[in-house]
Amino acid sequence: MSETTIDTAELGEKIVNVLKTIYDPEIPVDIYELGLIYDVFVNEDYDVKILMTLTTPNCPVAETLPLEVEEKVKSLNEVKGAEVEITFDPPWTQDLMSEEAKLELGML
């Protein structure tokens, strides 16, 4: 393994840490703990694709949240490019929230 090789698991962790700094404006919990991130793909060129959803299709941040996710992930030195794809299949439900998020919102 050369020094230029980046550990994708380590990069995945960094991406998750960045995602945890982004909050849904209506719910005081980060988008990762809310379960809005369905998948993160990193290819060998360090291009990142994030499959995510929103709490509702007419979410007030439908335009800005994916851009914020893209910009923050792109800001990582190891990431060459980032693309966010929004899906509503499966639709987001509160069941996708982490225990931490449910606790934070007093749902446990």
UniProtKB/TrEMBL annotation:
Domain MIP18 family-like: from-to ranges: 13-85
Protein name from the UniProt record: FeS assembly SUF system protein
Record SUPFAM superfamilies: Fe-S cluster assembly (FSCA) domain-like
InterPro entries: Fe-S_Maturation_MIP18, FSCA_dom_sf, MIP18-like
Lineage of source species: Bacteria, Pseudomonadati, Bacteroidota, Flavobacteriia, Flavobacteriales
PANTHER family documented for this protein: FE-S PROTEIN MATURATION AUXILIARY FACTOR YITW
